[in-house]
Amino acid sequence: MPKALEMAALVALGAAVGLGANALSPRPAPVRAKVYSVAEASGGACAGPEEAAAARAPRISVAEASALCQSCLAAFVDARSAGEFARGHVANAVHLPPSGHPDEGAALDELRSHPLVVVYDGDYSCAVADEVAARLRGAGLADVRVLSGAWPAWAAAGAPAAAGACGSCGHEEGHP
Amino acid sequence: MRRAPAALLRLLLGAVFLWAAAVKLPDMAGFAESVANYRVLPPGWVPLFAAALVGVELVAGAALVAGWWPRAAAAVVALLLLVFTAALSQALLRGIDLACGCFGGKESASWGTVGRDLALLALAIASLALGPGRLTAPRAGAAP
Fold it and tell me: What is the pTM of this model?
């Protein structure tokens, strides 16, 4: 069996080498600062100030969107890939990636029956959600917003997911 | 005769860890963000842990390749893989959609990633059991 002392020496040497290598890295980790996950960061990266306002749909927080989900006052659109959607999504969300929906007309009719549509994706930049939101606005939907913090923030908050309860919204899970 | 397979296994594991560390070095800040997205560590610990982790990968990988304290290095690598597997699994079970950060880049965490870590863990345990091995040809006339 390996000696614990040798293992400890390797770990200690490794930690020292890592800190030294970090100092020499072109993009070092900020060792004196706190690094938050994107979902924990204030407002989520979707609210990044560097984004051009014109390209961004209005944002909605997870707390507000979750309340609207519970009361069935908002429809949710999942703009991620089919695989990500299958692994977990907002309860009753319609899967509508940028490539479109197999029955786009029916999907849009379903979304029009709600006063508000919330679009989300899995990427912290929310670029895909913005793209889909712009398309929905172009299709005549009046109030389309993008979820701040995207799916990671929703999942981190424990908001209603496919396996959870989202009230009785009166339509089939996943697709209109 | 298991010296050559044992040595090849040690070299393979060492190369994987050297590579995993090397691709993170140019963007340690990005790797720290990946670590933070697992939401396991307090934010104040994340950058130090991320930097130290890359160094441990580097030193353990180099030790395996060079044959320095090979059993201890294999044990460290096995412990790292256990930690990686646990971190990935908890993130997936919590529905966190994140890049795994395993080899830098944007590779998404998935159960396939967990399977890969478990396979590497099996190799590390085998290396621990088999010992360092040796890559020398048997002498002529030597008993097999």
Answer: 0.58
